[in-house]
Amino acid sequence: MKTRVTEMLGIEYPIIQGGMAWVAEHNLAAAVSAAGGLGLIGGANAPGEVVREEIRKAKELTDKPFGVNVMLMSPYADDVAKVVVEEGVKAVTTGAGNPEKYMEMWKAAGIKVIPVVASVALARRMEKYGADAVVAEGTESGGHIGEQTTMTLVPQVVDAVSIPVIAAGGIGDGRGIAAAFMLGAEAVQMGTRFVVSKESIVHENYKQRIIKAKDIDSAVTGRTHGHPVRCLRNKMTREYNRLEQEGKSFEELEYLTLGTLRKAVMEGDINDGTVMAGQIAGMINKEQTCKEMIDEMMEQAGKLLHI
What is the DSSP annotation of the chain? Predict the structure, then answer.
């Protein structure tokens, strides 16, 4: 399946792994890249030197291209932006902000810049500032979300820009990949499916919570304060929603969730931790290697698209 995205990134399959905080580290990124997709290291709130170490460890595990997700709200964003240049990273995705101040530096280094967008307006703006592609991410995805669904957002972004569009949100198998292509996307980005991969360092409790999830287990917190986050229902989400309904301030609610993603991912606390996952969690029912996942999904997508 050759598309402008596979050609641009030098990858075999049009599958990009999401740059999930605490989850997307060198083992997962290298495994996805080795299996023919594009693995991503999630910069999150990590200092530049921590990200540099992750990049170097990934290079030891694979000689295939991989990328880094730069979270623009991070206090270390400036450092991470420089580190990806110094380490010769092939591609960068960006979230939580506008990457235009780094564009010139990244483009001069030959880095492909792929911002994540949740609206047509932002997609247009990113194209204007020189983005090589955009990830149009629907509200079905895990973590921080926008309001539009993947089904409605992707075709509108495809119509609005001339650069390639990568679909994200609610994609967990070959049917989702085929559907994204029907909407005009030239690749997909997936997060939740890769969380349960054998190479993922996520705590077994977290993986099992996703594997056992039902279709109705998805919850969104923080809507009233304009910072919606999608995760799986648990004690923490119930408490958050109760306090939110009582009209508690953003600061009070933020304090409730401080460090809870790390608590879930690293310590396996799936009651008081934040178990970020997309709405496709209910479709995931087994742990596989990244290669098994990608091979299975590409075979299914290929049959549906008659490739």
Answer: ---HHHHHHT-SSSEEE---TTT--HHHHHHHHHTTSBEEEE-TT--HHHHHHHHHHHHHH-SS-EEEEEETTSTTHHHHHHHHHHTT-SEEEEESS-THHHHHHHHHTT-EEEEEESSHHHHHHHHHTT-S-EEEE-TTSSEE--SS-HHHHHHHHHHH-SS-EEEESS--SHHHHHHHHHTT-SEEEE-HHHHTSTT--S-HHHHHHHHT--TT-EEEE-GGGT--EEEE-SHHHHHHHHHHHTT--HHHHHHHHTTHHHHHHHH--TTTS--B--GGGGG------HHHHHHHHHHHHHHHTT-
Instruction: Please say if the pLDDT value at position 210 is more than 90.
Output: yes
* pLDDT tens-digit readout, 217-254: 999 999 888 889 999 999 999 999 999 999 988 888 88
Mean pLDDT along residues 58-86:
95
Cβ contacts of residue 89 below 8 Å, gap of 6+? 55, 66, 67, 68, 111
Identify the band that residue 182 occupies on the pLDDT scale cut at 50, 70 and 90: very high
Instruction: Read off the pLDDT of each residue in 118-133 and give the average, rounded to a whole number.
Output: 95
CA distance 45 to 62: 25
Q: Are strands 134-137 and 143-144 parallel, antiparallel or unpaired?
A: unpaired
Q: Tell me whether strands 187-190 and 15-17 are parallel, antiparallel or unpaired.
A: parallel
Whether pTM exceeds 0.90: yes
